[in-house]
Fold this protein.
Amino acid sequence: MKKLKRYQYEQYAILCHLAYPDDFDHTQYGFLPEGREEIIDRWGRPIIRILWGESNEVVLVFKGSQNIWDWLLNLACFPKKVITANKPYYVHWGYHYLINQKSIHRNYAFHQYHPDLSDSQKADIFQATQLPHYRQHAANSNIIKQIQHIVAPLIASGKHISLTGHSSGGAMAVLSANYLYQHFPQAIKRVVTFGQPATGFWSFKKHYPLNHQTYRICCDLDIVTFLPAIPFMHWHVGQMLWLHNGKIYQNIPTIIRLSRSIISWIMRPFSYHFMQKYIRNKDFFDKH
């Protein structure tokens, strides 16, 4: 298994952070002006951004929970049966719903160049001019099919796919990677998630094909990474990297990670008494 390098971690972490604002300048991060597609949720907000530049990597960024409806879907942890390559397995119903819900897809560059036009007017322009870079899909298309439609020509041009997301966005990234693998098995470069809850049951863990390319980043006592809180029912996939007390721990068992986190939390008030804490805060004096 290849290690996740620091610059890769920083890139995906920044992109996941920038997934939450309604907009940001993607060209500042090495992507082409026209190298951006967006999938919009029912409230008109980008839920997935697909970005690419001159390199051979296309990055799919999945946004995490942002409203009450999203958080309720996290609680819908009963099994959803899925069959791929004649292999049945079960995944978290709520996260399966998130990548299969109906939505619309827009080309970001086209919307930037025509900000005063409505979606219907832009669709009319597309029909009249057959602009190759603008693809407006019908509202009854589901998210995962739209992703497949967008990345297919990029993969055909020689690019590889990386997927990243925070919280439930990480769960969506894992399930989307599993789906895309069935159609483009050689095209998935890596999957990197942050604060991700478990996405499936044991059968999904058993059949997940990208364990060696999946990195699940957990930070200290992030309670979401322990969800759904039903022992031995939901299982994580891939390699777990736990960031704790200035170190990176790899594939620490859940019970050990939970116990160490609780002990660290209980001891935290006492840790402020140690001299290294005072030494570490010396930079505050430079600001006075």
About this structure: The first strand starts at residue 31 and ends at 40.
